[in-house]
Design brief:
Length: about 300
């Protein structure tokens, strides 16, 4: 019998790195999803390129673009990863543990949804269910394994996810329409977008201004709607950088001032009776939130350091 010559195959880690980089168009965002450093993701992609003998990406100053060969290879890599995931799920189907997570819409959309694939790949023993709940403070417990809330924390000791700050942001188009740079004391002449649980007065106090909570301007129940309105040039929103990742990356929103205030409410996990599976998810989520908050705050500050 003829011996089959050895084949040098790419690693699963390399395939995951190229798939995430291609989908997110950034080593940095792929690193955040994969819980790696950007240099580690870049190294895995380069190793794969050397193995194949082709360039998978065209590297530009502030972006990455797939080459034609890269686009073909990424589709093949995705199919391989889907097959491997299906094999793993089939082998462990009888051992999966259902984990139910509830979260408010903006947190679910901006923090959880983009990164659940990373958790699922790292913890294939879980069958995760994400349920979106209304952003209403003091609403009754849902009975989920993990309940993520936003607001004033209860007197017991919850697991805090993010110590947020807020700062005004607007779209470049809206800022250009003002025709002149604003001072904090001039915010009265812009359209301020309001959410019921975010206080403009707290930020004004941090800016050294004496004022009361504005009673004019559009009001939205959901933070995500406030942010979307700001992206679409409808006014200035009081934003949490931790929730702004993609908008900051694309410069769809930019901060007006290098002044920040700590809001009274934060994201936390309701202290339901804990079990090992829930504690594992919360530990993963706390690490993810720390990385996202630090990265997005640095992005926000960079608008002023590069000015």
């Amino acid at each position: 019998m003829n011996r089959v010559p050895p084949i040098h195959l790419p690693s699963i880690e390399g395939l995951r790195a190229i798939e995430a980089t291609a989908r997110l168009c950034s080593f940095e965002r792929a690193a955040l999803e994969l819980s790696l450093t950007p240099s580690a993701v870049s190294k895995r992609v380069i190793t794969l390129e050397r193995l194949l003998g082709i360039s998978l990406f065209t590297r530009k100053a502030n972006s990455l673009e797939l080459t034609q060969a890269g686009a073909t290879y990424v589709e093949q890599a995705r199919e391989v990863l889907r097959m491997l995931a299906a094999m793993h799920r089939g082998a462990h189907a009888t051992q999966l543990k259902r984990l139910t997570v509830t979260a408010t819409p903006t947190f679910a959309r901006q923090i959880l949804a983009p990164h659940l694939t990373s958790f699922a790949e790292s913890h294939p023993q879980f069958d995760l269910e994400l349920i979106v709940i209304a952003p209403v403070p003091d609403s009754p417990a849902t009975g989920a394994d993990v309940e993520i809330r936003q607001g004033r924390r209860p007197t017991s000791d919850p697991a805090v996810l993010m110590q947020d700050v807020v700062t005004p942001m607007a779209s470049p188009k809206y800022l250009q329409s003002l025709q002149a740079p604003l001072m904090p004391s001039e915010l009265h002449r812009v359209t301020r977008l309001n959410a019921p649980y975010e206080s403009w007065k707290i930020w004004m106090d941090a800016a050294g201004l004496v004022c009361r909570e504005p009673d004019t301007g559009p009001k939205f129940q959901d933070l995500g709607l406030v942010y979307e309105a700001a992206v679409n040039g409808q006014g200035v929103a009081l934003c949490r950088p931790s929730l702004m990742g993609d908008w900051l990356d694309r410069k769809a929103l930019q901060p007006l001032f290098d002044i920040y205030a700590e809001p009274p409410g934060s994201y936390y996990v309701l202290p339901n009776p804990m079990h090992a599976e829930a504690e594992l998810f919360i530990s993963w989520l706390q690490g993810l939130c720390r990385r996202i908050a630090a990265r997005n705050f640095a992005l926000t500050k960079s608008f002023f350091s590069n000015a």
